[in-house]
Each structure stands twice: as structure tokens, then as C-alpha cells.
## 1
Amino acid sequence: MNKKLWSPIILGISVMVGIYLGRLSVPVSNADGYDGVQVMQMPSVTNKLQQILDAIDLYYVDNISTDSIIEKVIPRVLEDLDPHTTYIPAEMLNDVNIELKANFGGVGVQFSIIQDTVNIVSVVNGGPSSHLGVLPGDKIIKVNGLDFVGPKISNQMVMDSLRGDIGTKVNLTVTRNNTNIDFNIVRGLIPQYSVNASYLIEDSIGYISIDRFAENTYEEMLQGIAKLKTQGCSKLIVDLRSNQGGLLDVVIRMCNEFLHAGDLIVYTEGAHQLRQEARADGKGVCQDMEVVTLIDEFSASASEIFAGAMQDNDRGLVIGRRSFGKGLVQTQLQLPDLSAIRLTISRYHTPSGRCIQRSYSDGREDYYQEMGRRFANELFNVDSTKVDLSQKFTTKKGRTVFGGGGIIPDIFIPHDTTKASPFLYNLRAKTILYTYSMEYANKHREEYKGMDSKSLIAKLEKTNLWPEIIKYAANKGIKSPSSISSLEKGIIEQDVRAYIARDLVGNDAFYAILNRTDPTIIKTLESIRRK
């Protein structure tokens, strides 16, 4: 079962946009640049394009801003390069960079816009909102005294309103149980977490889900593994499904924890970049831990480096579906107006020599349309997985692996189609299950207070939520069909329990519930047990 409960098409669009921005970056220490992204000097030359712009500025019949022309020309110039070289306008640059930073200034809440209202989904522990008593389930109705509800409210508007410089103030009015409450919040440093969950999925088998490779991901992973080891974990499932990538030095440090001294992790090279290798130093804390890596069609760039390093060094199985196939490394070039371009400077190769960047010779549009073609066939049939038989490579122990685009898993898991009924689709499309779960959690928060994940999950499983769910859906205009299969009913109840558990105790419980019926997790556990 898809762990994030999103439809493949929506998730596909999301990941394509993320990858299009060229997220795999070369990190260096640079006091004048953005943390974690290399910033170089732009070359200063006069060329034909500049001469044309100067002529327009000097002689054109009307007064016109050449800056507006340049904004349109730059993307067109880059369009003929690879799909991951891109232009970032100045007004977008901070938002693009912030997702790879460990911290930013804000109020410390996660939100979701439901029925034109901003609902607080979770409150960051230790953040400004948590200190003042803001709770999950609160609905923001005013910001700085101005109404903040209605169809014009967007995710960007919310982020622009809540984020800001550390030390600045914002007033939020929320409604809770039909009562309005004002909070005067001083924006503070908000940690960005990239490890979604880490828990013991079975005796001695740990599970860790990693959302992206950001500045703090390495430390988060170590903390999660340390927690698991205290619980007796000796085998680890690293879930990189839908992980779109991130910082190169971070994934190298993470791979180092699992590999032995001298093992090659990755190497990069380009026409103007000499070959650079990264090798394990033999000091990793997980060298003796059995590891299995999970990937899917949305695992890209740094995720593929990790999976490729584990596979080529024969450190553990890779399970799932062929990864995205993004093997290009970008550097960020700063422009004088604080805009930037992310320019591809090299290709990365797995230890066996595979460059897993898939072809983009037919242009950008075709490149991104490939994901739709995968959904038409490959994701459901192992025999259709793209394998270029001419690109054979050998792992450390002599196994044959193939290049030609993405990491091909050792064990293929077809895409799950059990969630395709119209009734379930409507429940999700109209956020019925999600809103019901939030309301249930708010009503029963005191009842579940103090419970750990295991106890809460056990209690939820004994609670018959089905009649309430069906009644709630009907009140929202979605009537249940005359006949519902036990499979579909189980999926709906499981989704609701997972949302409730996440609201009340956090992500570990959320994933613990969903993973019980996840085909990839089930197959992974079977593979581990057989050893």
C-alpha cells in the first residue's frame, strides 16, 4: 500500500516538479553562499546576446525593460541543455533553497488547507507554537487581525504569512471547539525533519523512512538507528520510496555508515570536472547490520546513489521498482540580482560504473512524459522493466547489474492497484477520511493522552470506527455503495487509524499501521526472514 496515501498521478506531478529544480547539489563550505549549495562566480563576458540587448536598450522605438526580456530568454537558453539545468528567479530562490536547510524562521506548525480553511495538522515540539499551547486540530481563521479563510487561501499564502525572520511577531486567531483563541507568536528557529519514522517493525528488524537528504538528515538517521539498536535492532529497512534526493555530501556520509573501509560509494566526472571519488573510511556504525533498501519510480538522485552503493557493494538487497533515473549533479551559479541557475556540471556513477541518468535525447517534454508511460505498463509487470542488456556491470561479488536508466531492484514489487474503487477514490479526493480522523482525534485527545504508539494502536484496532466513518461520509455527500468488500473496508479503516495515530502520537505509529499491509514491506520482511 502506498505509504503516503496519495494517488500516483498527483505524486508523479509533485516529484517531477521537485526533480526538475535539480535538487542534487554539490555542497561546500562557502561563507558567501547558501548553506549546502555551491555558489560560483558567473563569467563576465560580452557576447552577441549582450550586444542585442544593448542595442534594444539604446535604439528601440519604445522604452522597454531589457530585464523582462532576459527573464524570458534565460529559460529558453537552458532548455536545450539537460532537463535538470534550470533557472531560478530571485523571488523563488529562497523557497527553493529552504527545503535543503536544516532550520528556518517560523511558528512551528504543519498545516493542510481543507474546505478553504487552514487546519493545523501537527505542532513542532519545542517550537514557538508548542510553547503557547497551539494544538493539532486548531483552525487558523485570522492572521494579524485579517480574515484568513476562503477560496483564495493557498499553501504559498500560508507559508508567506507564517514564515519570517526570527524574532518577528505574528498574531494568529484559531478556532477550537467553536471558541476563538488569539496567539501572539514570536517566530523562532524551526527544525526541518527529513526522517519520517524509525521504529522496530519486528523483533531485531528496524524500519527507517527518509524523506530527503537535507543538511540534518545524517544526524537524524544516526539518532534513529541508535534508538533502534537499544531495542535490539540488528537488521534495518531503509525506505527511500518517493525520496527525491538532496545533498551529495549527506548521502555519502550516510552510505559510509554501512560500507567497509575502501568501498567505493560514488564517483562523479564531467567534461570540465575531473573524476572525484568518495570511499568509505571503515568507521561506520552499521557495517555489520543487515540492510535492505526500498525504492520506487519516484526515488531520485541521492536516493539512487544510496541504493546503487548498497547494491554494487553487495551490502544488501534493493527492493521495489526501478528508480527515476536522475544521475546529474548541479551547481548553483549566483546572478547579480540574486537569481540563480542550477547548472549540470557532472554525472555521478555507482561503484560498478553505472551512470543511472536515463536518456533525455528526445527533449524535456518526452523526458518527463516517461513517467506516464511507466504507469501504463512497467510498474505492474516485472518483464517490462527497462533493461539495457548492452550495459552490463558487475557488483563487488560478481553479480550482474544493468545500467540504462535508474536503479533496477533485486526484487520487483508491482504497483498496488487495490485502492482503485470509485468510493475510496472519492473519500480521499474530498479528504473525508482525513477530516474525520482529525475531528475524531480532537474529541478523544484526553482519552488517549499519555499512551505510547503500541498501546494506542492496540486500542484503535479494538474500536469499531466503521459506522461513524460511513455516517460522516454520507453527511459530506458521499454515500457508501450497497456492497463494500472486506478488503476495501479494511483499507478505509486502516487509513483512518493511521491518521488518528499520527495526530495523537506521531509518525512512528502512522507508518506502523500502514506498513502492516504494504506489499513492499511484506515482501521485504519475508526476504529478511528467509536468511
Note: Residues 467 and 477 are 16 Å apart (CA to CA).
## 2
Amino acid sequence: MRRLFIILSISLFINSYKLHSQAIYPVDKWMEYVEDLAEETEDTERIENLYADLSYLSEHPFELNTVTEEQLKRLPFLSDRQIARILSYRERYGKILTVYELKNIEELDYQTISLLFPFVYIGDISVEKRAFTVKNMLKYGRNELQIRYDRCFQQKKGYRAYPDSVLQQYPNRKYRGEPFYHSLRYSYTFDDRLQAGFVAEKDAGEPFWNAYYKGYDFYSAHFFLKDMGWLKSLAIGDYKMSFGQGLVVSNDFSPSRTALVTQAERRINGFRRHYSTNEQDFFRGMAGTVAIRNVDVNLFCSYRKLDAGVDSFAFTSLKTDGLHRLRRDWEKRRTIPLLVYGGNIRYAMPDFHIGLTALSYSFGKYRMEPDLKPYNLFYFRGSNNINIGVDYMWKNNRVKLFGETALSKNGAVATLNALALTPTSYISFLALYRYYDRRYQALFGNAFAQGSTVQNEQGLYMGLRLTPVAYWRFSFYADLFRFPWLKYGIDVPSTGQEYMAQVDYTPHERFTAYLRYKYRKKAENYTGSDRPLVAITPYRQHRLRFQQVYNISSWVLKSSWDGVLVDRAFRPASKGMMLSQHIGWRPATVPFQWNGYVGWFHTDDYGSRISSYEKNILYAFNMPSFYGHGIRVALTFRLDLWKSLSLSMKIAHTSYFDRDLIGTDTEEIASSRKTDLYALLRWKF
């Protein structure tokens, strides 16, 4: 272990090596962007969706001479000013001959170009759209089939054999299905205007082909048309939607507190296909957009069934994990009908837009009735609700204003408003204020917030990004917030603060490094042997991260160090650290690439856990958390068997030095080691 520590430390702090051959840009820079987002949220489903969407776009990049403003807005790391400069450069100088011309655009620094490179290319310009004929669809349509299989090699408690007498008394001790994950995804696309496909999935532990059930646990299908003249989009089957800043409805990941400190606006409005294994965050039915000059009219209707435990047509909460492994899971499976309908009308000009969104949802004869607690006094109760919101945006070359104000059926208000300033290409500033009434209720709301819901929160966020000299970038943000009412785990109204400072250094194309510090202060309940009554105490968390990346010919070396310190009243401080090293080899002439990862971690407890991103198979995001003392090793490779057939595999192993059991309840493993296999076979035809 001492030897491993020395090797990682040497790799981490050596920074004098330089090469002077042709520039190689790190193709995985955008993955670090998603990693940064994942550190600040527990919304793993939407993070995985964002990662899958960006993975798809990196596999199907935009042609730089024909890419549109709407397409570039799908890349969340690009600002409006940067998008405008890319398009104006093309208009002024004509056809872009190489992607390296992007370096001539003043607003694009090296970090942004590194993020953008995997999503653009230079190719043949085709202005005419192909006609929708059977011949063209057969000739030019693109098919893709993905088959995925995951498995843990160690046996978990839920898969053990139990006597029938035990299972009759304790039926939820044993999973009903097989110990592997499996999914099947197929898609067809034509000229980027027609998308159709389906998804089938079973989670590990869910029955696939046995006495309990035959077939996949989850099925999804979609048919999506867009850019058909006045019919801007048409969705049949499963789809996603987002409007405004997410106070009424959004299926997208909520941009929040990241190193891209001045980009917190939602820019994507409208409908998109649902082509993921997320079993909860989508709509099922029909939706469409009609474009009449500068006005878009959006209408939608959805009906599907949700999971919940029902007692006399009442349920306390919705089950949202999508798992159906135990008998109690099957008793809650698809019990609650949900009908959603509404619309949005949006008037948009290049520098201004305003929109109105209205949405109604109903559980039919069922009622949501959470068990009454002081903290959930203002949660939604009933069988139906309505949300209405108005969003806006106005901008010029240096100033941008955007926001949304929404109402729920009970008259409560939620509002978010922001001011973005970009006086020069090397300075940007954002101030964002949000007020979410404690009584505001929006089942599909998903907006900028410290909490997981658009409710019971007020806050002022300020972000500043500076690029004062070559090679250096400085990013800062401060978020001051308060919760006017009680929250789960906090029995009084409370306040909090969060700060971040980051320095990025990029001396040349082959080396990048950054140092980041984050501080968070919140309140929490405390009950100890010395305090029989609940006390409200401060919770302070300090996080420090250093990372450097080398690109040497076809090799990528990434070294990281993470440290965390958690300070709680009446308890000893909790601390932890992690050292990790990533090595990747991606030759240009061989249809094979591999990535290796090794990480050593040592934390005091779960409160000081550390998350670390590691490469996974195609379209899959993986950023596990670790606590205690141990080592993590992972090896990922991708082999292109033929031009249209590729195989991605990963094997990951974790060894703990401080325990003999891993996990809890039915996920418990009676070992100090855990090994997982992930495999994906993709066929494009």
C-alpha cells in the first residue's frame, strides 16, 4: 500500500514534461463536465440521461458548416455569446475548413474548445433534405441495436436460498429474479428528422424468465418527427419535455452550481424522444409543436401508471426507483394512473422570447396523502393539481435577463430571475434569485435549487468567471439560501451558504490542471446521549480537489487527489481522502482502445465519502462513492470487431481493508471484495 501511495503521489505532482508534436485535444473533457455536475446532486437518473444524450451526440456529431443555433444549444457548456460568435464567424469568413479554426474565435478559450471538439466535424455540406420515400428511408436510414449485460460476481443476500417456511413468513428476504442486469435498445433515424425505436430492460434481481414473470420488466417505444415545415415536432409513444426554467415541467438535468459558474439557464424548450432506461422521468402519449412564424404552439397529453403502495385509494408517496425485485415491489407496481395534459405557447425572436405553460395532472380516483409530519405540512395532498408559468428572456451583446414565474392550484408562487453580464470575452457574471413558496406544489418541477423539489426555498446565487491572462481561468460562485419552513432532518426554518473557487491552468494542448475548493454550511438535527432533546446544529463541509491531465500521442494520463473534511457540533470531525490515476490508450490506426483506473481511498465514515468518476462502457455513466479504507481498480476496453459492430466491456473490482461485509439488507455481500462486469454489444446497420 505504501508503494501504491508513492506511485500515485509521484504521478500526481510531476508537471514538467512537455512534448511539441501536433496538438491532441482531450476527447473526454466533456465527461469531466458531467462529473462536475454529478458531484453536486443525488439526481443520478437525470445525470445518467444527460450523459447518455451527450454520448449520443459525440457519436453523431454536428457538421460545423451546417450546424444550427438550436443544435448548438443542446450542448449545455456553450454560452449564448459563444454560440453567436461561432455562427457569425462562419457567416463572415465562409466555409470553415478545419475544426482548428475555432481557435480564432476570441470567445472560445481552450477549455471550451476541448469540450466542443467531440461534437463537431468538417464534412460534406448537404443543403437539400431527402424526400420521405421508402427507397430513401431504406437507403439512407440508420439502424442501431444495443445489447447490454451487467453482473456482480459475488452473491448478494437477496439471491441466497431460503427454506419455504422462512419465505412464507419473510417473503421480502429473497429477490424474485436473476442476478444480472440486461437491456435491449433499438433505434432508427432518417435524416435527423425521423426517430423511432424501443427500449426493453430488467434490473438485477427482477424476474426475466421464471415462474414469477416472463419478459422484461420495462418497455418503452417512441416515434418522433421534427422539422417538417409547419409541423416542428410530433411525438407518439414515450417522450420528454421541458419549458421555461423548469418551475412547471422539465425532464432535463437542472443546471446548478458547477465550475461553469455563469451558465445556469435552461435553453432547451419543447419535446424530445425518450430513449433511455429511466422508468419514471418521461411522458407517454402524444405531443406536438406547430410553428406559425415566430410563434410555437405546443400541446401534449400523457397517460401512464406509476408505482405506489395503495390503501383504500390513498397512497403516501410514489415509488420512483423503478425496481421490482421483491414481493412488496410487485404489490406497488403500476397501481396509480396518471393523466397529464396541457400546452405551451411561445413567441421567440433572436434576442427575446416569452412563453406561457399550463399543465394539469390527475390521479383519477386515487389521492396522495403523505403521513402528516411537521416538515411535510405543505406537501401536495389530493388527486389533481394545476401549474401555470410564464417565462421570458431578453438579451443584447453584453446583458441577458431570463426567468420564470409560476402558480400552483392553491395560489402559491414560485419565481426564478437572473441577470447575466458579459462585458468582455474574458469576464462573465451571473446573479440568480429564486423564491419558491413553501406551499408551491409542482410534481414535474425541476429547477435551480439546493433541495430536490421546487418548494420551500429562497436564495441568491452569484457566479464570476475570469480569463485575465493566457493559460489561466478563475471561477467563483457563492450561493446564499434559506428554507422558510422545516425540512426533513431539520426541525426549524434554516439558512445555509455554499462557496466555490477554482483555478484552471492550460499551458499547452497536452496538459491541463485545476485546483478546486468548495465550502458548504447547512443546519441539521442532532440527538445524542448527552442531549435527549433534538438540537439544531451546524454542518460544515470542506472539499478540495486537484486534477491534472496529460495527452501524450495516443495516451491520456489523468491524476486526481480529493480531500474532504466534515465538521459537526458535538461530534469529532470526519475526514477523508482519495488518490486516483487513470490511463487511457486510444490509437488512431487500431480499432481498439482501453482505459485503466486505480484509486486508493481512506475516509472516517459515510459522511466523508468521496465520489470518483471512472470510464464506463458506451452510453453508461459511472461515478461511485466510497467510504472506509480500500482500493478500486477498473479496466475498460472497446473493440471495433467490424466497421459496424463494436464491443465495450468493463470489469471493476473494489477491495475494502476495514470490513468483511459490503452493503446492507438484501444487497449485502459477505465479503470484503466486490467485482462487477459490464458489457455492451452495438451493431450499426
Note: Residues 1-26 have pLDDT under 50 and may be disordered.
## 3
Amino acid sequence: MSPLMDRREANAPYRLIIGYLSIFIGLAGVICLLPLLMIAIYPTEWGAYPAFLVPGGCAVVVGIILGLILLKRDNKSRLGKHQDSVLLVLIWLFTVFIGALPFFLARYLVTGPADPNQLTMSFSEAVFESVSGYSATGYSVTRELNFLAGIEVPLTDEYYAKSCAHVFLFYRALTQFFGGVGLVLIVTSAISDRYGLKLFFAEGHNDRLLPNLAKTAKITFSIYCGIILLGSFVLWLFGVDYFEAICQSACAMATGGFATRYTGFYYYFTEAYPGNGLFTYNYIGAETTMCIIMLLGATSFLLIYNLITGKVKNFVRDCEVRFMTIFLIMAIGVGTLFCTLQYDNGAGIDGFTAFRYAGFQIISCLTTTGFGNAPSINILGPGIIGLSILAMIIGGGSGSTAGASKQLRVVVALKQVWWSIKFKLSPSRQVRPHNIVRAGKTVEVTPELYKENSIYLLIYLITAVLITFCVLLVPNMSAENSLYLVTSGLSGTGNTVVDFLAYGANNPLWAYNWLLWFMSLSMFLGRLEIMPMYYAIVRIGKDVLHQETV
């Protein structure tokens, strides 16, 4: 065979990768176009349309052209080992950069009554905002477009038109909606392709609801949308404005945490919130509803499916459900005590309010959502901050929209410690099977599974330490703040002890950009669960050097 034919054969999988990538480029374009629907509801914000139409339309056209050229029916090529990871990483990279364009181009393309000065965002800020959205993290560097009731800005039609608030807020919620459930799942629920299975699992969807992959994706997506709609309706009944109810419910189920108010979810617990005008605003009801949505978002879709289909026993006996229940009871109890004694540098607070703040904060961090119902996390005291870091490292359930190291891995690690101690204390030294209960099924924890689990947890911690060290290199950044930021970013939580815009205003531009890019890296790695990025880099390196991958 000639060298030219060898080269063509070697490049064939990458033509297929770009072909499949074209589908997701088109999807990213469609996501950019969807906020235009808001203009029909809020016509005074029509000036925002070019910022979405230009990048969205171009992405759709490019996606269609590449797909028609490269996705031929007679294509016999196959993806090699870990080339599915290359495709997955490229999917997320292209989606993130396309998603950043409406934020970045707003100051150049927004016309009409809108004020470009209110929509100014550098490229670094735009990428940061997009990564935060698609990774379902919730960090934000928006200035006024997310301040529907900005502290000093009156609620007027003129303000909405100038800031195009509803359009951009809806777009941010959309990025978390699609990013939370997974881009691959969205496409898999619509089409069935021969490489969907590898990508489906590589993206973190490790539980099948049904034997058929496409049906699994459709049911998962239906559950996801159903909970969001039901949550929005309940929030509306409790007095939340319908637009904000939809945005908050979507971000809670995606465990994202983008807020529609400058002061975050805390705004809904102040006298400033007017409610929807139809129902009396009930902040306890709204707060409880948000906690339930966040917990559902951090629960495996397989377990939710079991619950919906009446298999309650499978749900209750699951090792993750039991671990989450025990952890929340202990952490909220201890957190309430900490908050009562340490609130506002020891000023103290009543027990019920301390319970509300501690409970919401711990649930928000364990589910990696990032909402807060307190004026500031710093005011809750160091005890709550420490518990929050622990909760963010643990994260949500495996096969959910939540991030971090995942509860299943923590359960396996803790079980292995218990089994090891029990074996050494046993007089007979009998070897007993090591089992856990997963969605009603008894699963054996093999040495290979434990090894893989331990390696991932070690890599996760090493990655957190390395990025923390990089963030520490910027001026005026303490070790504790760096650790909290990176832990929050890598887990996809979005809770912050640093105001990014204030940091950018008071420090050199290079330091601000350095902070944004490394935080973007932490969020990106956390969403991909680190390993696909490693596999992709190694595979590309071997392909460039023409080395065989076994």
C-alpha cells in the first residue's frame, strides 16, 4: 500500500470526528438562536437580535455544510481507541467558544434602544461566562445584564430595553439547561448513531434506564424537562415571577446556579422582591422547592426513574441515597451549630434562621448548584465554609447533572476502608464478598473497580491542588480563597468568596485574565470529569507522532 493511502487511512477517523463534530456545531448555533424567542415576549429588547443571529446562523450553516461533506453513508471508517474522547473534548470546546460569541459580540452588534456599554464583555470574560454556563457552574462576570433589579437601578421598561436583560438571562439559563443534562444526551435523544454509546458514557451518563440507548436518552431528557417545568410551576404558585421561576428551576435542576439577580437567590428573601402579583410570595415555600429541585438534579436519573415507576424500594436502598441522607443530616446539624455561634463574626443568629442558612448552603454545595439564601457565604462563618468545601469535593450522585468527585466514588472508598479494618480485626480472616447496592441491584466492588476509583479520586485532588497553585500566583489572592474558588469551579458549584469584577477593577489586567482562564480550565475539566481530556491529549499526541495505540 502506498504512503498516500496509509496517510488517508490514518486521517479517516479524524474526518469522521469532524463530521460528527459538525452536528454539535449546528446544535451550538441553534442554542444561540433560541433566545430570539424572548424578543416576541419582550419586544423592547429587539436590539439584541444581531448578537445571537450572526454567530448562531453562521454555526448552523457551517455545521450543515461540514455534515453534508463528511458524514457520507458509505463511510467505512471507525474511531480508534480514545478517539471518542478526542471528539467529546472538541464538542465541548467548540460549543463553549461558539457560546461565548453572543456575550463578546454584544457591544459591537446590539442595536436599537439597547446600551452597548451595559453589555461590554472582553473575550476572556465571554469565554469564562460560557464555560460557567455549559459546565453548569454558575460563576458570573456579567455587569448589569443579570441585575434585573440592580441595587441602584429602578425597574423600568427603559432599563430592560437598554440591558436586554431578559434575552441574555434566558440565554444563560439555556447554556446551563443544555450543559447540565449533557450535549451528547441531547443529540442521542434525537438521533441514533453508532458512536453514541461511547460518547454517552464518556460524558458521564453511566446508567441505562432501558436497554436501548436512544430510548434511555429520550426518557432521561423527558424527566429532566418535566422536573424543570413542575418546579417552575410550583415556584410560580409560591409567588415567584414566571420568567424567573423558569430560569431558576432550570438552573437548579442543571445544578448550575446562574442567578437572575445581582444578589443571587438571596434577593428572593428580602423585602425588595415584589413577587408575581398573582400569588402572595412565600419565601419558605420557594426555598424548600429549590432545595428539592437541587436534590433531584444531584440524584441519578436511573434512581428518579425507579421512583417514578413505583420502585421505591430500589430508590431507598441505594447506597448513594443513603450516603446523601446521612451526610446531609450530620452536616446540616453541625452547620446549624456553627452558623448559630459564628454568624457575622460571632454576632449570632436565631436557631431557625441558622438552620435555613446552613441547610440551603450545604444542599447547594453537595449538589454543586451554588445558590445561596444568605447575604454572603463569608458572613456564615468559617465552620460553614469548611463544610461547604467538603460538600463540594464529594458532589452529587453518579449519573446526575451534578459534578465533583461523585458520591458513588466516595462510598466505594469509605466502604473499602471499612472492609479493610473489618478484615484485619476478624479472627478468622475470612474473605467475604465486597458488595454495594446500586438502584436495587447488588454490585460487587472488584479490586479493579476499587483501583480505578482510587486513581480518579487521587487525580481529582492533584488537579485541584495544581490549579489552586496557579491561581495563587495572581496578586492579592489568599490560599484559602484560591482553594475555595478552585474547589467550587472544579466541582461545578459556582459558590464564590471573591467578586471577580471587583478583583478585575482593583488588580492588573493580566492577573484578572489569568484568574479567568484558569478558573475556566477548572470548570471545563470538572464537567468532563478530567479523564477524557487526558485520554484526548495522549491520543492526539500519539496520532501526530504516528504511534500505535493498542
Note: The chain is about 65% helix and 0% strand.
